[in-house]
Amino acid sequence: MRKKGVITVFFSLLLICIVSLILVLIESARMTGARYKMTMAADSAINSLFGNYDKEFYERYNILALHMNETEMSEELNKYLEYYSNVDKGLLMAGGDICRIQNEEIEIISRTNLTDNGGELFISSSIDALGYSIGETIINEISIQLNEQAEVFRQSDKMYSTVNDRVNNIKENISESDLNKLKDSDELDSNWFDYMSREVGNFILSNLLPKDKGYSSGKIETIKLPSNGLVEENNKNYNILETITFNMYLQKYFSSYTDRKANFNEKNPLKYEQEYIVSGYKSDKENLDSVAGRIFLIRQGANLITINRSNLYTGTAEALAIVITVLLGLAGMEEVIKELILFTWAYIESENDMKLLMAGGAVPIIKKESEWQTLGMNLPVWAESTSNENTNNIVQERSSIENKKINYEGYLATFIFLQESEIKCFRAMDIIEENIKQFNSAFKIKQCIYEIQVNFKFRDYRDRKNTISLTRNYK
Prior knowledge:
This protein is of the alpha+beta class. It has two domains: 2-118 and 458-473, no CATH class; 132-434, no CATH class. It contains 17 helices and six strands. The relative contact order is 0.15.
């Protein structure tokens, strides 16, 4: 009997150990399950929050961003967290949750907006939206075109320097009272080249734009837009592929005078969006004038290069100069009159180039003698023949010329490429904000969130505090 009793006690003690071990394992699994449930609930809540991206922003510009303030985000997270953490919700019989966790607090540690760091996240999102689906051949072709266009800028540099010197001389001779009047009337810019380009463009386009496609009356107020508060610098160095991809994004999603994109809406405040990215003025007219003025100055410089390289045209101008000096008795003025003839000749050719470009055509970057269209001995006749009604004839005539050409969109691409990343980034955001405001008056791109870090605080069934820290973005 004593032996049987010993065995009974032994098994009783062993059973207690086994039951204790099982209970410890169950409790450990319960604790792990509670922690896992907390993590899953927090993860699902933040993912659901990021599913509330701004639909208009995505549909029109293919960029994902969350447009909410911190109060709205906290309310949405609480709603989703309550749903995912309460497994009994919606069930007829409750009590099946052995973890019994309680949501205590949601703390938003940080938020990163698209406008932060000089718009770095907007640029990276734009690049991701367009994708790296550009072949090496296309990249090389674009790079060659950009280098050719940059060559035009370099060869025209002397002309720009001369004009800027003259403008600076005018500036020095303006009295202080006149200067204040100009500033008050918003007619004077700190950048004199932009001012000069705009005035040249206004003069050229006043007689060039077709009657059925004149200036847009679009205008915006930039004082509350993202570009007005541009203070942060984007310190990231973008490689050539990233730069070209971002430029192509701007060309794909933003309209211009000659090219309206698929996402264009008549309600858009500005119709010439790429021109705004280049120039940054408040009105479509000012932006178009500025871009057209720049193109005209480039065309004038390129045409002067062509005409001065040609013995035929310089000889013709010299002969005309001799005839004029003899008839008018202006001895010794042959060289001056010759240069004036060449400049006028190039001017008329440049004006005809502008007419063609604004009509959607293309012209050679730097022309050959055979591509010159203005007749040296009959300038008035040619100038008269290039009226608005004959624009289509000019397009057809020049389309047969086989050479590397660039159209209006190509010049815009060059100007955008040469623009600083922060400036073109924030001007693009200006346009996006103004366009989406036509459908959502509360939209502000400064409130568009790309990334957030959140601490979710819980209490488990033993009233112990637990914190889950999560970071989410749209990468």
